[in-house]
Design a protein that fits this description.
single chain, mainly alpha, Glycosyltransferase, two-stranded antiparallel ribbon
Amino acid sequence: MKRLNFIIVVGALVITSLLQAQDIKSDEVKEVMTKVADWQIEHFQDASEKKPHPPLNWTNGALYVGMIKLAAISNTDTYYNWLKKIGEEHKWQLNDRIYYADDHTVSQMYIDLYRKYKDEAMIGPTKKQFDYILFHPAKTSLEWKSPYAQDRWNWCDALFMAPPVWAKLYNITGEKKYLDFLMSEYKATTDFLFDEEENLYYRDESYMGKLDNNTKIFWSRGNGWVFAGLVNVMNELDPKSKEYNYFLDIYLKMAKKLVEIQTPDGYWSMSLLGQTFYPTPETSGSSFYVYGLAWGINKGILNKSIYASAVKKGWNAVVKCVTDEGMLGYVQPIGAAPGSAWPDKTEVYGTGAFLSAGSEIYKLYGRK
C-alpha cells in the first residue's frame, strides 16, 4: 500500500511538472483570451448574485480595463466597438459618487478610448470631476470607521480603481496637478496599509492585528488589485522620474514576496500567508499576479530566470479554470477577505484580471 501511494504521488508530480513545462504559444494565449472575452460579452448582463452589476460599477470597470488590453492586440475592432458603445450609452459619465475610488474605475477605459479616437467628449466628464476633487479634496482620516473615510483611498482595492486614472490624466494633459494629487494620496494610503515586514497590504485598517489560523490576514485579490494597479500607474510615468521609482520600489518588494508564497499548483491562496487553510484555487487574484509579474519580465525589470517559471505556472493554472464554453471559474465573489470560490462561479472583474494577464503573457511568449 505504501509503495502504491508513493507511485501515485510521484505520478501526480510528474504530470504536474509536464503540464507546467509545456510551452506557451502566443496564438493560443490570444485564442483563450478571445474565448473568455466573447463568453463574458454574451453573458454581460446575466444576474450576478441577486442582480446584474450596473454598467458603470467598479466590477465592470475592472472588466473594461482588461477588455481594452485584448482590443489592442486583436485583429478586429469588435472589442473597441463594444466598449465604445458602453461609453456612448452613458455619455462618458462616471458612477454616482464623486470621491469614491470604485466609481472612478470606468474612466481608465474612457481615457484609453480617447487615446485611440481623439474625441474630447470621452474624457470631458472625468476631467471635470477630477478637477472638482482637486479643488475640494477630502480631509477625512484613513481610519476605517471615520466619517466619510472612503472619500479617500482607505482600502487597498482603491489603489487599482482610481490612481491609474490620475496617472493617465497627467500623461495625456501634462498637467502636474494630477500627478501631485496621485502621489500625495497614494503615499498616505501606503504609509497606512502597507506591512513593511511582509511587503503586503492590509485590505483596510479593520484587518490590522487580526489573525486567521495564527497568520496575518492578507487578502489575495486585495493585494492583486494593488499589484495590477501599480503596473497601470507605472505605464503612464517616465521611468526616469522619482515618482516612477517610488512605485517601482513597492512593486519590487511585492514581486519578491509573491514568488515566495505562490502555491505548488501555481495559484495564490485567498489568504496569501495561509495557503494550508485556503487550498481552493482562486483566479482573480492569481490573474492579477500573473499580469504584474509578466509585465515586469517584459519591461526588463524582473530577472526572467527567477520569475518566468512562476509566471508560466500561474498562467497555466488560471487557464485550467476556463470552461469549454469560455467561462473563467474559481473567481471569488465580491468580498473583502479570504473566503470561498467554486469552479462554476465567475465574476466580470475576474474576467478583466484574466484578460490583463493574457495581454502580458501574449507579449512575453510572442517574442522571437
